[in-house]
Amino acid sequence: MVAVRLTNGFGNNLFQYNAARLLADYLGQETYCVPPAPDYYAIPSLQSLGLKFIDSSAVSGVMVSEPAYKMCFDKKYKDETFILSGYFENYQHFYDDIDKIKSWYPKVEKRKDKDLVIHFRAGDRLFYKNEFYSKPQVDNYKRAIEKFDFEKLHIVTDMPKWDFISETELADMSFHYNVPVDNRVSPQESVDYFNSFIEGFAEYKPIMEKRTIVEDFNFIRSFDNIMFQHGTLGWWASALSDASKVGVYGPWRPWKGTSNKNLSQVNFKGWHKWE
Q1: pLDDT digit string (tens) for 125-164?
Q2: Structural domain that includes position 181
Q3: What is the DSSP letter of 97?
Q4: I need a surface site. Which of 151, 222, 228, 230 has the fewest CB within 10 A?
Q5: Residue 19: closest CA among 101, 102, 107
Q6: Whether the Cβ atoms of residue 157 and residue 120 lie closer than 8 Å to each other
């Protein structure tokens, strides 16, 4: 088998699983996911997409980090058990096999309208000091939005509401990752940043869509026009869609170094960068 240790969130998990399954398919093996904890929040959503899970105590084999990943694509390892560990957030791992990867996931009926959906990844990203000051502002978004010919604007976000928030409300919100206090900007800066989008997007009369994670994922996949900044859920929802136009934020997350900064460089058909 090829097992993969899942870490972080739903979108990260799709990178990890898809990397593992490509290797497993090549070697003629099964793919299993090892959750970070038995009660990991994303298990039900991932299972609904067909991912299979196994307890860490039931797996033993050769540990494979990302630098060694490509070397495992050798038929001499067809009887080996590999355990992948890492993020695998490099589009080059998946680019040539994207149609195969699409076939692994339930089909989603494509919308027939010209609406635009934006995956607005906020949540813990409203706090990170090391990326906050390089985040795109509302005017960057609006210039990118105007490149689309659309009728209605839909917002998919990890925020509990699309409306003005206060510092008190923000303090009461919980997300899948808790940013350490010493890496946070001030609460007022976070609030001002988010509220600038509520005000700036008002002219579009956005429709907020709030469902489960997997429902959000499939909802985005159904659109012909998709735009997102730097969320891994948005990346995979776009990559596994049949959208004719996708706008991805060009700088991605440069502060992370080499780990996933090339995700915005992929030239899937219909994709373009915005800044």
Answers
A1: 777 777 767 788 999 999 999 999 999 999 999 888 999 9
A2: 116-274
A3: G
A4: 151
A5: 101
A6: yes
